[in-house]
Amino acid sequence: xxxxxxxxxxxxxxxxxxxxxxxxxxxxxxxxxxxxxxxxxxxxxxxxxxxxxxxxxxxxxxxxxxxxxxxxxxxxxxxxxxxxxxxxxxxxxxxxxxxxxxxxxxxxxxxxxxxxxxxxxxxxxxxxxxxxxxxxxxxxxxxxxxxxxxxxxxxxxxxxxxxxxxxxxxxxxxxxxxxxxxxxxxxxxxxxxxxxxxxxxxxxxxxxxxxxxxxxxxxxxxxxxxxxxxxxxxxxxxxxxxxxxxxxxxxxxxxxxxxxxxxxxxxxxxxxxxxxxxxxxxxxxxxxxxxxxxxxxxxxxxxxxxxxxxxxxxxxxxxxxxxxxxxxxxxxxxxxxxxxxxxxxxxxxxxxxxxxxxxxxxxxxxxxxxxxxxxxxxxxxxxxxxxxxxxxxxxxxxxxx
Length: 401
Prior knowledge:
By secondary structure, the chain is α/β, with parallel strands linked by helices.
């Protein structure tokens, strides 16, 4: 009998991962090829559910009943054979902690809520997405992990002879480094496999003149447009369209950066559009360590990062030739346009320019635009989505700088 497994988010982990977690459980973050939930489902069999923060539960589920016997796993925890072994060996009403925070538990849900459990000490390295920038920091590693697990025992579609491959098609163990799913198109591209594998999803496309380096992921129906320069550590989720120069960036899905301009060390949510000629800094002129806006602490947190580009929430639009300073954080439904650099934190539901200032975007206006955007991909904005966005509109006001 399979276990009932719930991927849970705490309020603090949710806030530390805003604005990306405004619209989804943390386990729906895409890191590597798959989302965190998809990784767990493929590596640890069970009946999976979400346990997100309260306002997301109408859409994603309420979680277990108090008396239900469950396995709980933090949605921010990345699976690997070592942590899975430790979770499988948990006794009844036993938990694994990361510091003072539970990240895995077996037993009755009511006992978890009351902290009525013993603690299992483990030696395995705990790999988590604690902050938004962890997504791009861990992406190259996760591409490698996902690639070899998902392609093992499978045969790639052939690569056409109009392309140039740099490096070997297989690694020292004989594993293929290029995998092309059915329906994908690749013509007149340069593909460098020396630093990692390249995964090209179903019906995806790399257009002519593009130069790409592994590790790289192009998910289902995503496109790399003509003449693009794509460096390693990038993941482009389903239906994304990308162009220009991109380095170590993750786009969750349904977002576009289809034209020239630079983007690096960045995380982009869904339904975003980055206009032609947009350039985003990922390095400070004085080479000092970067501070980035943190919603949970309501301040700019210190990091050990020297490189960090933008973190952009869902449904944000950036107009042509806009510029972004290092580590700019844009919330949900930001509409940015005009000349100059905006502030390095722009709250959700804001529109305007650095020179003209910003005003509030009414939620009714946002929903009208979102509906038009989604229908282009045959996605319906249903009533539960509308209520979630209305709630985000309410709670986002407390996260203004």
